Structure prediction request, 192 residues.
Amino acid sequence: METTASTVELIDDELVGNVARAALFAALMGAFAYVSFPYPLSPAPVTLQVLGVFLAGLLLGPTWGTFAMVLYLLAGALGAPVFSGGSAGIGVLLGERIGYFLSFPIAAGAVGLIAHGRQVRDLAERSTSRLVGAMLVGMLLIYVLGVIGLAARTGMSPTQAVLVGAIVFVPADILKIAAAVGIVRSDRLAAV
Prediction:
């Protein structure tokens, strides 16, 4: 009696890899949220989360960078302590930082789209000015949505919200752009 074995591919390997990378970036965002410093000039703390948004867009591209940020927000909303200071829950997500949180998937998608186009490309083929421009657009989206949410949730005037919700963060976020460029231009990522 002869037996024939056959294999069935249930899920495409590329899809599994992309979902795994997105989950890894969602977890990285949670870790970046623990690097949190209260900022006396703003109700929003200084964290490394914006760096995570930039890296998700640059390294995963528009679709999977967006998906990673959605996973991150979903995990936090469901109670995983992945927001700044180890906070979690729908109340935190819908609080005064709602605009920043909701901007993360949009900004990661925009960074990925500008850096890569619709198809993920080798970042070595992309100019540094293109990458910086992509992150500046992402930063602007985070600020615009963050300021709108901050003003809506706190009752601040638009001018005050722009000052404490965006302007005060510019120097730190410029350093995060420089760090992201250094990371994606590093030879260490070539092995990944």
In short: The chain has a mean pLDDT of 91. DSSP finds seven helices and two strands in the chain. The first strand starts at residue 36 and ends at 37.
